[in-house]
């Protein structure tokens, strides 16, 4: 391509960055020099506020308040407090979200509770997406096996027709965004189809929370879970969140009965009396350090509307798609080009996808590989600019044009891909 | 009492501290000036190595290695690696312990797996201690309800006779140390009684790991769980550990099927194939920050034998009991005086126990209250000295003699007691 075309793209990037300056939170994060980080959908970048919150939690709260920090630093109520902050990002009312366990454990609780709410002699089927992140399929199948239910693997595009006119489905458990292709599914439509068939709907928001204007309440979702360490930048292994629609809370049955979900935990009674509200979804002592870090990270959203963040995200991914076209990168794009069907990532297919990702990393552009042939590039909107997007696209062009992916050093697989 | 008696006690404290100098790890912890911390059995004191490990994990690993830290900083294998370090403290072989979820979730997995191993038409009964920490009773009852089993509340002193000659029990699930009284139960004897009756044994080591010379393998325990944030000082809400006897691993059924317990997690297969070994007990993405902090904290045990730590612990609690006698503190002692029956705490009964604890805290001696009438004083051996023990005893004497517990400000209850 000509230098002129590149100059024009650079000018466009600058113009778009100026347009979206209100959602630029780059100063809230630390990223190494020379790195363009397109893996915030796997591990969000270091949040400076998370780091500071963690230091305070360790040095002052743990170190000096000691056991008193449970009251003085409000550790005990942190799962609900941080849940309320996340609720603002995913269109949920206060008191409907709790954080603490992993996504998988949270989903186990959601699917189990849904089944207990709705399973009867005629309703024995749970639908889920065979292309969901595997843990979703595993944990859902596990609950079905435990309760004698049938798991049916139905792609999201077929979910509505499978549900229509049926009366055997009790739950449709879907991911909001396909973790590989980045396709955004219609939460409201699938939820409506489930409800019309008398079923419940459970959503995995791992790849939409914080970047898509999720509307759990408006969409009628019954249950949802989501991850704290991807776009929310809560840190490695950050606690996940669990949403239970308020209408279901009085009959929410937690399969893992622990003291943190008890109505009066410090009465130390051997009888389990579930707490009112979302607290009954808690289990054991919460991972305080992880929750505190997540709470710090969420301050990056202070003063922002998630709608504006979504607009920035779409602008970034849309600009990247344009760059692919204008730079002549003609890899098959697995991600829908329509805004309404796209999460916050762009996935490309390449037969040597793993090596392409490694070659990009060697150029300072960090994305990741997903089986079997996906180059996955996530665009965390709070700390990426349109300039970064252009840098990534030009690096990808170099990798492909120079066939850098063919070098042997880019083919060595690590334990974690 | 006379000044002479106090002087003599002080000399004895100094002599005992000199005798046990090899297990003094006070320098590995930070405690506020003027505080005698007798609540390390609820939240262990700040470990400096945990703090440093966490800083490195945040600033360098998360901040600069970013997603690459899963390989470069060995985050992925941390649950098993830290499990192996804990195994050395509780007499378990390498490859039998994993860390990650909360104690309650870990116990849920253990009880469920035990039931799946052993429940049949004739064995439908699970025994547990009505006086166990409530979460143990709740989660065990929950599994029983799910699987149609019967929970029988049988005190540890009655467990052997309940088991003898029976053939209906599938699991005896007990706590190694009573969290209120500090009584240490005979793990090997109860396990033997369970095995003689064809049942399995599961142990909660929350109040013994790191302070009692637990011998899981020698005692024949089938399953065990324990806490990372008490004597192990992993930090608030630190991940718990789960032990599965190697003989049971091939048939261990995890009720919560997640991608971290999969044989080939990065193949991203929708079929769940359990990993070999203890890895199959993993569930979701592990709480990396919490595990890293715990790994740091465990370095306090480097170069120590747990037998020597146990000897120091018994010396501390034994000296405290002597101080009570010699200082004329005649509260009923809930904790056994025999070394073989005592964990690492001393619990006293007082009708105003809550206020007594608050009055002690006002004097800088931090213990805790447990319903209904327990003043609970934990002696974390690594950072407490016999001098601290004497300070605590003299403070207690002042609180009682001066009736300081009668002051109104000591009766106000906080959320977390």
UniProtKB/TrEMBL annotation, chains A, B:
One of its GO terms (biological process) is anthranilate metabolic process. The keyword S-adenosyl-L-methionine does not apply. Signal peptide: none annotated. One of its GO terms (cellular component) is cytoplasm. Its EC number is 3.7.1.3. Keywords: Hydrolase, Pyridine nucleotide biosynthesis, Pyridoxal phosphate. The keyword Hydrolase applies. It catalyses: L-kynurenine + H2O = anthranilate + L-alanine + H(+); 3-hydroxy-L-kynurenine + H2O = 3-hydroxyanthranilate + L-alanine + H(+). Its cofactor is pyridoxal 5'-phosphate. Pathway: Cofactor biosynthesis; NAD(+) biosynthesis; quinolinate from L-kynurenine: step 2/3; Amino-acid degradation; L-kynurenine degradation; L-alanine and anthranilate from L-kynurenine: step 1/1. Gene3D superfamilies: Aspartate Aminotransferase, domain 1 (3.90.1150.10), Type I PLP-dependent aspartate aminotransferase-like (Major domain) (3.40.640.10). InterPro entries: Kynureninase, PyrdxlP-dep_Trfase, PyrdxlP-dep_Trfase_major, PyrdxlP-dep_Trfase_small. GO terms for molecular function: kynureninase activity; pyridoxal phosphate binding. It comes from the Bacteria. Catalyzes the cleavage of L-kynurenine (L-Kyn) and L-3-hydroxykynurenine (L-3OHKyn) into anthranilic acid (AA) and 3-hydroxyanthranilic acid (3-OHAA), respectively. Belongs to the kynureninase family. Homodimer. This is Kynureninase.
């Amino acid at each position: 391509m000509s230098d002129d075309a590149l100059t024009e793209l650079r000018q466009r990037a600058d113009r778009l960055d100026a347009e979206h300056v209100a959602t630029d939170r780059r100063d809230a994060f630390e990223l190494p020099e020379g790195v363009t980080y397109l893996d915030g959908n796997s591990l969000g970048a270091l949040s400076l506020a998370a780091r500071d919150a963690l230091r305070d939690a360790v040095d002052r709260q743990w170190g000096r308040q000691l056991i008193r920090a449970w009251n003085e630093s409000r550790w005990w109520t942190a799962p609900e407090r941080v849940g309320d902050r996340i609720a603002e990002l995913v269109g949920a009312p206060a008191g409907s979200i709790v954080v603490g366990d992993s996504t998988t454990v949270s989903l186990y609780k959601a699917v189990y509770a849904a089944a207990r709410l709705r399973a009867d002699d005629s309703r024995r089927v749970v639908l889920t997406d065979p292309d969901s992140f595997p843990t979703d399929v595993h944990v859902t199948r596990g609950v079905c096996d435990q309760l004698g239910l049938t798991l049916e693997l139905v792609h999201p595009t077929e979910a509505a027709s499978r549900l229509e006119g049926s009366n055997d489905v009790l739950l449709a458990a879907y991911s909001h965004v396909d973790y590989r292709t980045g396709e955004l599914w219609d939460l409201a439509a699938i939820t409506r189809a489930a409800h019309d068939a008398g079923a419940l709907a459970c959503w995995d928001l791992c790849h939409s929370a914080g970047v898509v204007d999720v509307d759990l309440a408006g969409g009628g979702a019954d249950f949802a879970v989501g991850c704290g360490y991807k776009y929310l930048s809560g840190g490695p292994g950050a606690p996940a969140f669990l949403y239970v629609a308020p209408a279901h809370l009085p009959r929410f049955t937690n399969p893992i009965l622990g003291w943190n979900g008890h109505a009066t935990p410090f009465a130390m009674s051997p009888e389990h009396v579930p707490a009112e509200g979302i607290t009954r979804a808690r289990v054991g002592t919460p991972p305080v350090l992880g929750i505190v870090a997540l709470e710090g990270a969420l301050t990056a959203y202070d003063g922002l509307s998630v709608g504006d963040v979504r607009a920035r995200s779409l602008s970034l991914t849309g600009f990247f798609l344009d760059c692919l076209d204008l730079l002549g990168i003609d890899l098959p794009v697995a991600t829908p080009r329509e805004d309404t069907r796209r999460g916050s990532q762009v996935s490309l297919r390449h037969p040597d996808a793993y090596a392409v990702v490694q070659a990009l990393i060697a150029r300072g552009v960090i994305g990741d590989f997903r089986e079997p042939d996906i180059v996955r590039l996530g665009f965390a909107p709070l700390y990426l600019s349109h300039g970064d997007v252009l840098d990534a696209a030009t690096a990808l062009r170099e990798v492909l044009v120079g066939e850098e992916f063919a070098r042997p050093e880019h083919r060595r697989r690590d334990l974690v891909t």
